[in-house]
Design brief:
Helix content: 10-25%
Distance between the termini: 47 Å
Structural class: mainly beta
Order of helices and strands: HEEEEEEEEHE
Number of strands: 9
Mean pLDDT: 80
Low-confidence stretches: 3-44
Number of helices: 2
Radius of gyration: 20 Å
Largest sheet: 9 strands, mixed
Strand content: over 45%
Shape: elongated
Amino acid sequence: MIATRLLTGLALAAAALSAVSLPSAAQAATPAAGGAAVTGGTDSAAAPAVIWGPRYSPGRGAKASGSLRATGEDHADIPAAETVRISGHVQDLTRANATCGLAVFRITYRTSGGNLPFTHRTIRDCSYGTPKPFTFDHRNVYQVELKVCSEARAAQPSLNCLYSGTWKVLYLSR
């Protein structure tokens, strides 16, 4: 009886180990801790789109959600995706006329010299209750991060929006 239990335990452990060590192709792009999308694999085929969100601003004055698709990952010295397409919608959840909902993306990209600078891409919605759709592409992407803010109408996101709180990682090339 003890031998049977021991063999059963070993068989279950071996089955669990094989299931963990052999991920399927459907798991090539999986959400990591905190909902961050981390894409793995070495082929240049398009990974399935990763759904992100909804993400809310502090105080829940704005909401953003969407999807991200990375294609053509290059695993050179500094890995990067050839193209990343981000689409979704941002929505202002405040009834105030002078307030807007912002989805701010910080996109870190690889240059030909091997540097990793970043740029911001801001999508703004100032109409309460009507989500604003967006879609954009970026090339040679190493990492995509998101921050959702709700603030007064302005040409650029405030320093408070950009530098307080934490960025949520949506994509990291590995």
